[in-house]
Design a protein that fits this description.
mainly beta; 1 helix; globular
Amino acid sequence: MWEMDFNGTWQVVSSPDFEDDYLNMRVPAHVTLRQNGDFVMGEFEIGVQYGTLNGGVYEDFIDFDFEGNDEMEDIFGEGQAALEGERLIFELWPYHGDEWTFECERRR
């Protein structure tokens, strides 16, 4: 069975939930994923949000928990990432908050 490869650093290129100026406010917005079989861990830094994640790979998507910081407030939640063609669709669902979607391209 063929396994999806989520490894690498993915540059956030757009979001329906945030203006482009916000995405790269501190650093170039990115998601870094390290996949080892069915397990994945990583980090993200988007706008003023940053955090770590860990979860599992399920055929064509990743399901994960995350924790981090958003404007100096702790955030926790769940999320998913899935490949759509050459793009990674990265979603964060903070507990007691909004849901955010980011479109990413693999850095070369």
